[in-house]
């Protein structure tokens, strides 16, 4: 009322159009911040926009959480390194000729996930397209299931190698 937006006696709760615009702007801002920080839109924006949870909002939150998990573990190290360089948390050593960012990846980083996905897909296909006999189907399912489980176990055993951790070390804090 002091700014002249509302008349005397008007209440902000009675302004449905303003409330809708405000909630959408707030949710859009949350999406923009979350995309910069986490790589996906914000969670629970359906609640921010409408005041209630929706089934589609739950599905989108699950999808965004899966994407965040993948990005955080397998593709976010370079982003953190860039942020550290930009903020000055890491100072480049001009004497050191080799870049700490360049790390040669082994064959297993591409081959093992592909083998696991192919083996798991073949296991599902064998389940859906049964063979002539149940023993034939069981043999195929056991083979492809064990192949997918075996590659998954190898990936878990070498898990730290698959994680994309930041490669730059923060500089010492100067007192």
Automatic annotation (TrEMBL):
GO terms for cellular component: endoplasmic reticulum. It is an enzyme of class 3 (hydrolase). Keywords: Membrane, Transmembrane, Transmembrane helix. Residues 1-39 form the SAC domain. The chain crosses the membrane at residues 109-131, 137-157. One of its GO terms (biological process) is phosphatidylinositol dephosphorylation. Its EC number is 3.1.3.64. It comes from the Eukaryota. It catalyses: a 1,2-diacyl-sn-glycero-3-phospho-(1D-myo-inositol 4-phosphate) + H2O = a 1,2-diacyl-sn-glycero-3-phospho-(1D-myo-inositol) + phosphate; a 1,2-diacyl-sn-glycero-3-phospho-(1D-myo-inositol-3-phosphate) + H2O = a 1,2-diacyl-sn-glycero-3-phospho-(1D-myo-inositol) + phosphate. GO terms for molecular function: phosphatidylinositol-3-phosphate phosphatase activity; phosphatidylinositol-4-phosphate phosphatase activity. PANTHER family: PHOSPHATIDYLINOSITIDE PHOSPHATASE SAC1, PHOSPHATIDYLINOSITOL-3-PHOSPHATASE SAC1. This is Phosphatidylinositol-3-phosphatase SAC1. It comes from Drymodes brunneopygia. The lineage of its organism: Eukaryota, Metazoa, Chordata, Craniata, Vertebrata.
């Amino acid at each position: 009322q002091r700014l002249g937006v509302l008349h005397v006696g008007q209440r902000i709760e009675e302004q449905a159009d303003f409330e809708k615009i405000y909630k959408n702007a707030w949710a859009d801002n949350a999406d923009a911040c979350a995309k910069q920080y986490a790589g996906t839109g914000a969670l629970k924006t359906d609640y921010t926009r409408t005041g209630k949870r929706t089934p589609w909002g739950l599905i989108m939150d699950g999808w965004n959480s899966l994407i965040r998990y993948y990005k955080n573990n397998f593709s976010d190290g370079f982003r953190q390194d860039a942020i550290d360089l930009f903020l000055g948390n890491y100072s480049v050593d001009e004497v050191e000729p080799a870049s700490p960012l360049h790390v040669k990846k082994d064959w297993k980083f591409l081959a093992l996930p592909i083998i696991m996905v192919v083996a798991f897909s073949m296991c599902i296909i064998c389940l859906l397209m049964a063979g002539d006999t149940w023993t034939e189907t069981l043999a195929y399912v056991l083979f492809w299931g064990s192949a997918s489980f075996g590659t998954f176990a190898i990936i878990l055993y070498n898990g730290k190698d698959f994680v994309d951790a930041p490669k730059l070390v923060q500089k010492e804090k100067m007192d």
